[in-house]
Amino acid sequence: MRPSLLPALLFAAPHRLPFLTGSLGLGAIALWWLVRLVSLNFGWPELPAAALPATLLHAPAMLLLVYPAFIFGFLLTVFPRWMGQRDIAARQFGSVAVGLALGMGLAIVGLWGGLDGLVRTGFGLFALSWGLALIVLLRVFVAHLRSGQSPCWHALSALIALAVGLLALGLALTFMFGGDPRPLRWSNVLGLSGFVLPVFLTVAHRMVPFFAGNVVEGYQRWRPDWLLAALWILLAGRCLAGLALSAPLSALANLGLAAVTGLMAWKWWPRGAAPGLLKVLIWGFVWAPIGFALAALAETELTLGLAPVHALALGFAGSLLVGMVTRVTHGHSGRSLTMAPLPWLAFGTVQLAVILRIGAALRADQSALLIAAALVFVAGLLPWLLRNALIYLRPRKDGRPG
Predict the structure, then answer these.
(1) Which end of the chain is more exposed for a tag (fewer CB within 10 A), N or C?
(2) CATH number at residue 349
(3) Cα angle at 284 between 63 and 383, to 5 degrees?
(4) What φ, ψ does residue 387 adopt, rounded to 5°?
(5) Is residue 401 situated within a structural domain?
(6) Has residue 4 got a pLDDT over 70?
(7) Dihedral over Cα of 79, 81, 85, 90: its sign
(8) Is residue 107 part of a domain?
(9) Alpha-carbon distance 348 to 86, whole Å?
């Protein structure tokens, strides 16, 4: 492919540049964290020092840079289709995609180079692009309402989560510029419980029953609207508990979430033959009730450390990320909707990585297990991420536009 054709190709569909940004960003940040862990525990290799501690930047980098890049690529594609609206044009999503890519790139250079100024600039530019993306998506939602149709609850749910996520990113920036750790704690609470989890739960509620109904014979689609309301009420309780450090409210909210997501997993489980792409979505979803149950248990006298957080942020969200990104990547590049070997490798290593990370948490974050989890994660995901990146840089196999 001639380099002159690259810009047109990257803006041929809303998912291309954000997914490319997310793929390269996830690989670079996961590798940076592995190197940092080795350096912190063994003193080598020595990376440039910075005032902002790497251990405090790990969570916002994953929750508020990597996941959003994929989330925006997905939502900019499906959001209008959920409501029967026109696809979002390149002149609308183009500036968002470029801003996300530049913000991600600057932040990654800053993380690797120990350059706090670039980290702050990258996160700040990413936040501005996030706000612009919210405006683009909100306009689609308003156009849908003005057409006289019933509200699309999945779209509304996603918009609320994106607004909370932007607030979380703003709090992370407050920490980066001011140094007060309290906004960072609030940012991590809202970034996971108010943004990442509700987005993935919303998309799963919309996507899993629909996909299963198309590929599993006799499948009964089950996705009542009250589920979204119940999830949001319980997630709001989880957020409030995390912000206020209320153990009773946290236990109650997490028990409720474990029950509701457990019911969803049981109702959605295919009772017949199912393709691999559906299986990884269902299997990955099972981490949700496990993670919420662990979070409830953590409010007792059991010492679980960060096990519940990684069961949800890595096990649940990471597994669904592999499944959903693979489905969109294959479907929008003219490939078959199947799990190829590299997606299976990525999914399998996410499962192993989260088990190792939970094991490390249960053993007071033992350094050997921490490094093993990060190493497995990087080794298994990098081939998949690089394969995806090459797909986004090439025309569709079937010759169709997009």
Answers:
(1) N
(2) 1.20.210.10
(3) 70
(4) -60, -45
(5) no
(6) no
(7) positive
(8) yes
(9) 37
| pLDDT grade for 54, boundaries at 50, 70 and 90 | very high
- Counting DSSP H helices and E strands in the chain, the numbers are 17, 0
Location of structure tokens 């309780």: 237
Cβ neighbours for 127, distance < 8 A, ≥ 6 positions apart: 103, 166, 169, 170, 173
What are the tokens at 189? 């609470």
Give how far the C-alpha of residue 273 lies from the chain's centroid of Cα atoms, to the nearest Å. 28
The candidate with the shortest Cα–Cα distance to 326, out of 286, 377, 269, 383, is: 383
Residues 14-49 pLDDT 10s:
999 999 999 999 999 999 999 999 998 888 888 898
Count of the separate structural domains present in the chain: 1
The answer to whether residue 9 is domain-embedded is: yes
The average pLDDT across 328-345 equals 94
Decide: 199 and 133 in contact? Cβ < 8 Å. Answer: no
Question: Average pLDDT in the 263-268 region?
Answer: 97
Amino acid at 228: L
In a domain, 402, yes or no: no
Domain that holds residue 179: 3-392
> For 120-127, which contacts have Cβ atoms below 8 Å and span 24 or more sequence positions?
120/173, 120/176, 120/177, 122/65, 123/60, 123/64, 123/65, 123/169, 123/172, 123/173, 123/176, 124/173, 125/99, 126/64, 126/65, 126/68, 126/99, 126/100, 126/169, 127/103, 127/166, 127/169, 127/170, 127/173
Q: Alpha-carbon distance 136 to 139, whole Å?
A: 5
Q: How far is 205 from 155, CA to CA, in rounded Å? A: 12
Is residue 1 predicted with pLDDT exceeding 90?
no
Over residues 220-226, the mean pLDDT reads 93
What type of residue is 217? E
Mean per-residue pLDDT of the chain: 95
Alpha-carbon span 43 to 258, nearest angstrom = 40
User: Tell me, what's the pLDDT at 118?
Assistant: 98
- Residue 335 DSSP one-character state: -
> What is residue 49's predicted lDDT score, i.e. its pLDDT?
85
Encoding tokens for residue 178? 């001011």
Tokens of 175: 């920490």
Per-residue pLDDT tens over the stretch 356-387: 999 999 999 999 999 999 999 999 999 999 99
Rg (CA), the chain: 20
CB atoms within 10 A of CB 82: 17
